[in-house]
Design goal:
Elements: E1 13-17, E2 21-26, H1 37-52, E3 56-60, E4 66-68, H2 73-77, H3 81-86, H4 88-97, E5 103-107, E6 110-112, H5 114-121, E7 124-128, E8 132-134, H6 148-156, H7 158-167, H8 173-178, E9 184-186, H9 191-203, H10 207-218, H11 226-236, H12 239-259
Parallel strand pairs: 2-3, 3-5, 4-6, 5-7, 6-8, 7-9
Antiparallel strand pairs: 1-2
Helix pairs in contact: 1-4, 4-5, 5-6, 6-7, 10-11
């Protein structure tokens, strides 16, 4: 079956739309994949499709040495207070964060400013040896206002986050792995293949179990353990759980019989 996440011809993205996943490639190479308002609008269209028809999302910038060089500075310069309060990028990244099924950022090269915040909004990140994360916003007279101020401390801890957000430090591939920011570091030529390997593993799992697990992980602390109990109760009554456990027990029984 062919899915179609959205209306007009893509101008800032390349979208590979599959039965069990959607692969989005940021496609503004002349601007180092800077996140423009048009790109934000197109990514919202992808989100709308995935909210209606949940699938795994892979976001990449390709293998040219830049994932996303930040927000579009020309547009940012002309934005005012009301634009900031509207949270143009923030609302998109929050929407990506809340997508029903896991999201994977496959990052080669620089992920700076809004590009880094886009990566932080995904559930999983894989990178290449030349990937660098950074938040240079204060150099331009603004702050990292699309999620990094609270999401980065959750991902790498307060001390490391302050080094990045306040002292202009950048995290290279080895530092990103050491601090647990990324799942894996691979050569650029293997980046998308590795992303698909992870997606292949994810789509074999129960979609409902993944959705409820993601809700539980992202829920505020005060929601636990009640949320966990209710989510597990829903899963215990799901027919898919019975089929999966029966298949597991049958396979184990067959293995024991073949060994005896």
């Amino acid at each position: 079956m062919t899915h179609s996440p959205a209306g007009p011809t893509w101008t800032t993205l390349e979208v590979d739309d599959r039965d069990d996943r959607v692969v989005v490639r940021l496609n503004r190479p002349q601007e180092r994949n800077a996140i423009s308002k048009e790109m934000v609008d197109e990514l919202h269209q992808v989100c709308a499709a995935l909210e209606t028809d949940p699938r795994v999302l892979i976001v990449t910038g390709g293998a040219e040495g830049t994932f996303a060089g930040g927000a579009d500075i020309g547009e940012l310069r002309d934005r005012g207070r009301d634009d900031a309060l509207a949270g143009v990028n923030l609302r998109l990244f929050e929407r990506i964060r809340a997508l029903p099924l896991p999201t994977i950022a496959a990052i080669d090269g620089y992920a700076l400013g809004g590009g880094a915040e886009l990566a932080y909004s995904c559930d999983l990140r894989i990178i290449t040896e030349r990937t660098v994360f950074g938040q240079p916003e204060p150099r331009l007279g603004i702050m990292a206002g699309a999620g990094a101020a609270w999401r980065l401390p959750q991902l790498v801890g307060e001390s490391v986050a302050k080094q990045v957000l306040l002292a202009g430090a950048q995290l290279d591939a080895e530092q990103s792995r050491q601090h647990g920011l990324v799942l894996d570091v691979v050569p650029p030529t293997e980046l998308l293949e590795r992303a698909h390997e992870i997606a292949n593993r994810i789509v074999r799992d129960s979609a409902l179990a993944l959705r409820l697990s993601k809700l539980a992980v992202d829920a505020p602390e005060q929601a636990h353990p009640r949320l966990d109990l209710v989510a597990q109760a829903v899963l215990f009554e799901d027919e898919d759980k019975h089929h999966r456990m029966t298949a597991f027990l049958d396979k184990r029984r067959q293995r024991r019989e073949s060994d005896s």
